[in-house]
Design brief:
The structure is a homodimer of 127-residue chains. By secondary structure, chain A is mainly alpha-helical. Chain A has a single domain, classed as Orthogonal Bundle (Arc Repressor Mutant, subunit A). Chain A has a three-stranded antiparallel sheet. Chain A is elongated and about 60 Å long. At the A-B interface, helix 1, helix 2 and helix 5 of A face helix 1, helix 2 and helix 5 of B. Chain A binds a DNA duplex (20 and 20 nucleotides) through helix 4.
DNA sequence: CGGAATCCTTGACGATACTG
DNA sequence: CAGTATCGTCAAGGATTCCG
């Protein structure tokens, strides 16, 4: 970005920086999931069925780095690692759920808009 | 995702479907920008400096398809196209700003968490 | 001016195998 | 169990060019 960002002020940097994780498909799911309490690595993996263990590790590392979750290792055999939301993570849950509620409430309108849009476009391709 | 999604219920599909655009770096910026009123293609491009015209076109198409913005073409020479938020788009602005406010208010905490995390990790790499 | 089409690079992500 | 490491794929996105 250049200095000519009059419409995109400094705040956008901050916002984008923080909500970058919102864009990450897995991060939100995991934060909401951990909103239900502390969980082990494999439990999260099973709950978020479809995620690879690599992505789960990477995602959890990112969330830990940003201060949203804590990682507790129990030096037992076999190893046991638990993840839990921090205060910051629990606070993030609030605006996240606001957005989630809006999404659920308005999903039909978006779906309708898409259907209408596609209905307008596809016939033209057949001309 | 498989049918075994007991922890990741149907609602997640809906939510993810809608907030997929939140993940898109440009979509949010553009929606917030259009929150300030109707704008022309090039004005948006200049405002969101750093976006390629390809991505701007693709992003605007997506927002139009989802019913967040309207696209008005004036058949003049040279062409003039204006984009404006729909009611749905203006409503989305609300939860989006909630999240944005949270991001701005807590950016420092995230930055601090990152710094602390990196400070713990980097020295170990030097061992 | 607004946008479509093409090419090309990059890195995100999955699959797999190995370790403490 | 909870990772780390390596490799291969594939599609998102930038740069460029042409069109109405």
């Amino acid at each position: 970005m250049k200095p000519s960002d009059t419409y995109v002020p400094l705040q956008c940097r901050l916002v984008n920086d923080v909500i970058a994780l919102v864009g990450d498909k897995w991060s939100i799911l995991i934060i909401v999931l951990l909103g239900g309490g502390r969980k082990r690595f494999m439990d999260i993996k099973r709950a978020v069925d479809g995620i690879s263990q690599k992505m789960l590790t990477v995602t959890l590392r990112g969330l830990e780095r940003d201060g949203y979750v804590t990682r507790t290792v129990y030096p037992t055999v076999p190893p046991k690692v638990e993840y839990e939301l921090t205060d910051l993570g629990r606070e993030l849950l609030v605006p996240l759920r606001t957005l989630g509620s809006w999404a659920i409430a308005n999903h039909d309108r978006v779906a309708a808009a898409r259907a209408a849009y596609d209905a307008r476009q596809l016939p033209q391709a057949a001309e």
